[in-house]
Write a structure and sequence with these properties.
The structure is a single chain. By secondary structure, this protein is an all-alpha fold. The chain has 14 helices and no strands. The chain is globular and about 50 Å long. The two termini are 29 Å apart.
Length: 224
């Protein structure tokens, strides 16, 4: 349907961005990249640039180019905390840019705090805020936020996954493993866990291998 739409409105950035997102979901990386680049070729288009940066960062491991893409994304959508957080992660690994990560994280924290004033019990906001503080080395601020988010949404796989990244950043491997187990129980997207650069050491933990085997066995059972 999206391709048919592009026959009627060729070059429409919204259609191209949505097509690119659908192709990402199908793991069709080259086709997704082409659509996302075309969507943002004439002007910055936030969602397309966000997904393109994800592809560059998570799949291609092109940290410098990912940082440039996320910079364009924050220009297009400057109030989206997710983009600033992604930019911070790209800066962390891009050669010679690590010192810029903290500034981007602080911007994400500022935007998340604004959202928190509107909805103080939003578990996604709380866990993302906790994750930012964890990456900034502020465990005393991060831990209660992450714990509250998990309490509010114990069955939410996305919240559990983000909690795992926060706990791992805080050096709490036991809590991170427990959170990953909860994410897998909620059928969270395995690719997100497997491609997360902040979870490389956790994935080498024998307990993770056991969780992964159980996850795959359960998914295989569901597909039959």
């Amino acid at each position: 349907m999206l391709q048919q739409g592009l026959q009627i409105a060729p070059g429409n950035p919204r259609l191209l961005a949505t097509l690119g997102a659908a192709l990402l979901f199908q793991r069709r990386w080259p086709d997704a990249e082409a659509a996302l680049r075309q969507a943002s070729s004439d002007q910055p288009y936030g969602s397309a640039l966000s997904n393109l940066g994800w592809l560059q960062f998570r799949i291609r491991r092109e940290y410098g180019p990912a940082a440039r893409t996320f910079e364009r994304a924050t220009t297009a959508s400057p109030r989206d905390y997710r983009l600033w957080k992604n930019l911070a992660e790209a800066y962390r690994l891009a050669p010679g840019e690590r010192e810029r990560s903290a500034g981007a994280l602080q911007k994400a924290v500022s935007l998340l705090e604004e959202e928190r004033t509107v909805d103080s019990r939003n578990p996604k906001v709380l866990v993302e805020l906790g994750d930012c503080h964890a990456m900034l080395g502020q465990a005393s601020k991060a831990r209660p936020l992450v714990a509250e988010a998990r309490r509010l949404a114990p069955a939410d796989g996305d919240v559990a996954y983000t909690a795992a990244t926060a706990y791992e950043a805080m050096g709490d491997r036991n809590a991170a493993i427990a959170a990953i187990a909860a994410a897998f129980d909620a059928d969270f997207d395995l690719l997100e866990v497997e491609s997360d650069t902040g979870l490389e050491q956790l994935r080498a933990d024998p307990r993770y291998a056991s969780l992964l085997a159980m996850y795959r066995q359960r998914r295989a059972g569901h597909s039959r």
